[in-house]
Design a protein that fits this description.
Low-confidence stretches: 1-48, 127-142
CATH architecture of the largest domain: Beta Barrel
CATH topology of the largest domain: Maltoporin, Chain A
Number of domains: 3
CATH superfamily of the largest domain: TonB-dependent receptor, beta-barrel domain
Mean pLDDT: 87
Number of strands: 43
Strand content: over 45%
Shape: globular
Radius of gyration: 27 Å
């Protein structure tokens, strides 16, 4: 019985820009070759990856059958070997052999490994009686990097990081969070961060695949890519998009996270996203993956990890990917290379890590965005998702980041930490524009918009635990600093050309000299934080309070003359109050109040007042909810209200400004886990009541906030078929209700629904674990508008993703 499972032009600026990337690439390749040379053949032959399991109790034969499918190993045994034996199941993080040994502990069943990599199970003839095996659990420390273990089904983790508050179980925090695992990213063949976070209803993408960047919406407010955290630090991620190949976890916090994480460089308030990079696990890993994306984009990925030292103290993880070929858009092509290196040390008291990644991408004919004329009362029908209504565009982006973190346990009750990082990123792009009328006609003007940003950031602090008068305290004292210099160069074509989104014309030529970007702003964000979490009655009642003193300093410069045009320096104290009450062990009632100072918005390049930077503003959130852990399914219900000043670009004057206040109220429902053996699910729904208040002259008071739908819905399922071991099927529905496109509520953005399907097959070939995956996004090839501010883009058409993964 077998069971299983080219740069555009050389210049000094370009050479400087790519020097760091080349060095990082050489370092990554050298690091990759080293462990291959050091690792003995036996270690390579035994390569396996630690993964999470949550297998319920049952007959030992059934438990082993499921374990074989999930672990991707072949198990051979006679029926009488397991006859009469019951198992308490398996929960926690294990290697393939480690999990098997845990399941068979105290059964007397012996394990023999086969040359093919499979296992033969034998029961000694002297055995007898019926044994009941205890449930086996491993602590979160067994997960690579000390991350919280995965919840039932493996798609979402039990907890995640909360910035200054540290890492905690989702049931113990007074916030709504979702923490995606590497398994979820792999099975959905995530290419970028957008493919990960779109899996729940409170998060929506405002831009489309293969555009010039990714903008997210959390609880109705925009979160740009530049406000995504990397291992708890802001300013280190790409302003365009982040590749999924470097990610171990993705942590989503819904609601303002100013106190937990500080101010994001772009001033997001709806929520926070943090990327946790990969670390070497306890077992050697060498994984190669070949990928395909229609029309004809081929790629390859390498993921390799090793640990060294008497107690596996030292770790190295190398990730790299390259893809090139035609994209789904007309005459489109994309070439992207990513390299990442992660080093870490984990001693008894000292923990250290170093991360470096570089990304280079060139896209010809990227997915466009367009505005609409002020006279438009109804949006024109979206053109085909294959259409580029700005033919001949080009985008080149480069990012290079290095970051390090150090933690030291002075005692078992006191820990100090420090982290620092540096990033340099550039983008060069064709930037055409021209508002469209109701028939899709527009007058196009071409432009070049090149930009750069240079960021350095740091975070230091201490965490202490102590008891006082029968109350347990977890106190954190911390300080953060972020410095960012940003610059740009913008020039337009002298002439224009008539065009249409369904029958686009060639772009006018830009004849002006394309110069280098000049400094446009200097930003300094500083904060000091003090928090305390009090625990009563054996953690049945948790109360968190905290204050963050924030300072925002900004200098703006003319890119033409270099002269400083404006500046501000403001500070405020942001409070946090949160409570968690557990009437029973598996139920958490929670509530929170947060407020924060946020950096003001910057007028976009296409606005009449392009580059104008606005003063900081304050936002507030009230939230209450309940979470219930049913053992293999987690459910939650929450209500919230978030208020902040409303940013808008007037369609008549094209001036970007802040007008009144936006108040988003909402109800969130969510459930995830394993609803039945081999059936995993993620389901969520969010209902919004988003209004504008205190607008100029009361003109738009009471209107619905533009861009915020009345409701969103997600349902995703993943099923291990019982008739073909190793074969799993998945499907996903993403629905977004209609919303208003403008603050006056005269233009409606239609609702849309996207259907995705997929399958994967895990097996062994020549003794190696192999997984084949196939996913189809936008199955019915539906065309629909996505909107970010006053600009809209057409969603990506039907997309086929194929991959073959092999572990050596």
């Amino acid at each position: 019985m077998k069971l299983r499972r080219a740069p555009r032009r050389p210049s000094a600026r370009l050479l400087r820009r790519t020097a760091a990337a080349r060095l990082a690439g050489q370092l990554a390749l050298g690091a990759l070759a080293a462990p291959l040379a050091w690792a003995p053949a036996s270690a390579l032959a035994q390569t396996a990856h630690t993964r999470q399991y949550d297998i319920p109790p049952g007959p030992l034969e059934d438990v082993l059958s499921r374990y074989g499918r999930e672990a991707g190993i072949m198990l051979s045994f006679r029926p009488e070997t397991t006859a009469g034996l019951q198992s308490g199941g398996l929960r926690g993080a294990y290697t393939a052999r480690g999990g098997l040994d845990a399941l068979l502990a105290r059964t007397g069943i012996q394990v023999r490994m086969q040359p093919s990599g499979g296992y033969v199970l034998e029961r000694p003839a002297a055995g007898g009686g019926v044994a009941v095996l205890p449930a086996v659990t491993v602590s979160a420390a067994g997960v690579a990097g000390g991350l919280p273990e995965a919840y039932a089904g493996g798609l979402v983790a039990r907890g995640g990081g909360l910035g200054v508050l540290g890492t905690a179980d989702a049931m113990d925090v007074p916030f709504s969070t979702t923490n995606y695992t590497a398994q979820a990213m792999q099975d959905l063949q995530a290419r970028t961060l957008a493919d990960v976070v779109v899996n729940e209803s409170s998060v929506r993408m405002l831009t489309s695949t293969a555009g010039f960047g990714e903008d997210f919406q959390i609880r109705g407010y925009t979160v740009p890519s530049g406000d995504v955290g990397l291992n708890g630090l802001y300013g280190l991620t790409s302003a365009s998009r982040m590749p999924a190949v470097i990610m171990e976890r993705v942590e989503v916090l819904k609601g303002p996270g100013t106190l937990m994480n500080g101010i994001g460089p772009n001033g997001s308030v709806g929520g926070g996203i943090n990327i946790v990079t990969k670390r070497a696990g306890d077992d050697p890993l060498t994984r190669l993956t070949a990928t395909y994306e229609n029309k004809s984009q081929l790629g390859s990925q390498l993921d390799m990890g090793r640990r060294f030292g008497p107690n596996n103290e030292w770790g190295i993880r190398v990730n790299g990917s390259y893809r090139n070929g035609r994209t789904a858009i007309d005459d489109g092509s994309q070439r992207q290379g990513v390299g990442a290196l992660a080093l870490d040390y984990r001693g008894q008291k000292l923990r250290w890590s170093l991360d470096a990644y570089t990304q280079q991408e060139r896209t010809d004919n990227f997915r466009p965005q367009i505005g609409f004329q002020s006279s438009v009362d109804e949006l024109p029908s979206p053109p085909s998702g294959h259409r580029n209504f700005y033919p001949g565009t080009r985008l080149e982006i480069e990012d290079a980041t290095v970051a390090t973190r150090l933690e030291y346990d002075i005692t078992d009750k006191l820990m100090v930490y420090g982290a620092a990082g540096y990033r340099y990123g550039t983008a060069e792009q064709t930037f055409p524009s021209g508002p469209v009328d109701e028939d899709g006609n527009f007058t196009v003007r071409n432009a070049y918009y090149d930009s750069y940003s240079r960021t350095s950031t740091g975070d230091v602090g201490l965490r202490a635990k102590f008891d006082a008068w029968g109350v347990r305290h977890a106190v954190t004292l911390g300080a953060t600093r972020l410095d960012q210099e940003a610059g740009n160069f913008y020039v337009t074509s002298a002439g224009t050309a008539p065009s249409n989104i369904y029958r686009p014309s060639d772009l006018p030529e830009v004849t002006a000299h394309r110069g280098s970007p000049s400094k446009a702003s200097d930003t300094a964000l500083t904060s000091y934080t003090l928090t305390d979490t009090l625990s009563f009655a054996d953690d049945r009642l948790l109360i968190t309070g905290g204050l963050r003193k924030q300072r925002v300093a900004l200098d703006n410069y003319s890119t033409a003359t270099g002269a400083r045009t404006s500046s501000y320096d403001e500070s405020a104290i942001s409070p946090l109050a949160g409570i968690v009450f557990k009437p029973v062990s598996n139920v958490s009632l929670y509530g929170n109040f947060t407020a924060g100072l946020t950096r003001g918005g910057i007028a976009p390049a296409t606005a009449a007042n392009a580059g104008q930077v606005f003063a900081p503003y304050k936002s507030k959130q009230y939230e209450a909810g309940v979470k219930v852990d049913w053992g293999s399914v987690m459910t939650s219900v929450s209500v919230f209200q978030i208020t902040r000043p409303n940013a808008m670009t007037d369609p008549a004057t094209n001036i970007y400004s802040f007008d009144g206040e936006q108040r988003n109220r909402g109800l969130e429902l969510a459930a995830y886990g394993e609803v039945a053996r081999g059936l995993r699910m993620m389901a969520s729904a969010t209902f919004y009541e988003a209004r504008l208040t205190r607008t100029a002259g009361g003109a738009n008071d009471g209107n619905k906030a533009n861009g915020v739908p009345s409701g969103t819905f997600n349902l995703g399922v993943d099923w291990d078929t019982p008739w073909v071991p190793g074969l799993s099927l998945n499907a996903r529905i993403i629905h977004t209700a209609s919303s208003y496109f403008n603050a006056a509520n005269t233009i409606t953005l239609p609702s849309w629904t996207r259907y995705d399907v997929g399958a994967r097959y895990a097996t062994r070939i020549l003794g190696k674990s192999v997984v084949f995956r196939a996913n189809v996004e936008n199955l019915f090839d539906k065309d629909y508008w996505l909107a970010s501010g006053t600009y809209a883009t057409v969603a990506a058409p039907r997309t086929v993703l194929l991959s073959a993964q092999i572990d050596f």
